[in-house]
Amino acid sequence: MNVSTGGRRLRSRGATAALVCAIVLSPGPGYAAPGDPDPNTGQSIEDIRDQLDGLYREAEVATEAYNAANEKATEQEKRLTTLRKDLTRAEKRVKDLHALAGAAARTQYRGGDLAATGIQLLLGDHPESALDEASQARQAMRGLVNVSETQKTARQELGEQTEAATKELRKLRSSRADKAAAKQKIEKKIATAERIEAGLEEEQTRRLAQLEKERAKEAEARWTESGGSSGGSAGKGKGKGKGRGKAQGPGGGTRVNGAAGKAVDFAMAQIGKPYVWGAVGPSSYDCSGLTSAAWAAAGHPIPRTSQAQWGGLTRVSLSSARPGDLIIYYNDATHVGMYIGGGQIVHAPRPGRDITTAPAASMPVLGVVRPGV
Prior knowledge:
- The protein is of the alpha+beta class.
- The protein has eight helices and six strands, in the order ααααααααββββββ.
- It has helices spanning 3-25, 45-111, 114-123, 127-198, 202-225, 258-269, 287-297, 306-312, and strands at 314-316, 326-329, 335-341, 344-347, 356-359, 365-370.
- The chain has a six-stranded antiparallel β-sheet with strand order 1-6-2-3-4-5.
- A hairpin with an 8-residue loop joins strand 4 and strand 5.
- Helix 2 (45-111) crosses helix 5 (202-225).
- The termini are far apart.
């Protein structure tokens, strides 16, 4: 065997060994367990799920900040409109008073001064005319003093209203800036999450879906263990909530009537509509947009954001939760769902998802609030 032939054989053996290694080490069909690292990224499905959850959570926090800034800006715009109307009225009043002051001054001028009137009383041929003129002069002077004081007060009010309107305008600009910053953050987080999901392979997507089902089962068990109320059942209706049973009270006893029943009916009828951040219907909603719209439809308007709902509504214990109550999630109160009984909520989950039902314990529960009481 010459050197050339030996070299070719060695190279051939090397190539064969490399091919065998490649076959052994290359990823086969997606039979990995949910916790196994992804061969392409080194991340487990749990890691990917947690990363996505984190991004959507940050987007939801920013959404609630956006909603709060939007509500604040709306109120400030209303206040500014009212102040501008008040300002217009005050300016007109000052203008009218200025004209009245001029008229009073002209009346005084025509009546002469009181010293001249005294001479007319002593020397004049018609003292009664002098008395009439004196009376007119006194009235004119009193009117001039009154108009001057009123004018001064009106100008002071005008100044105060102008200052108040200026402050409201500054606040409005600040709220709009906060709103714009929150919007930018929301869009950035959602775009990042969507890029990750778009880059997933079909098998990874299947494993993520399986992981979510497993977590849902665990959440149902946690609700029972936590002592959460069964609160009857409003069903797990699909597609506008058709075929849903009547909601019932704690322990499956009293049916939910009145405002709570109407709120549940409304929320369940939105199932299948998409989550859109900042939306309050009718074609799409975010989490607090859904709950606020549902209770408004029931005739009991509630605060717009989940944080304001947590801070402004009556709190009840988890064990006494009943259909129509709102379950607030996370320590910063940035997600909300409506309890429908049976350990379930109806909610708008996150971007890319539709309004649906879910286990009430599928997220960390902060507490429960009850509108309409």
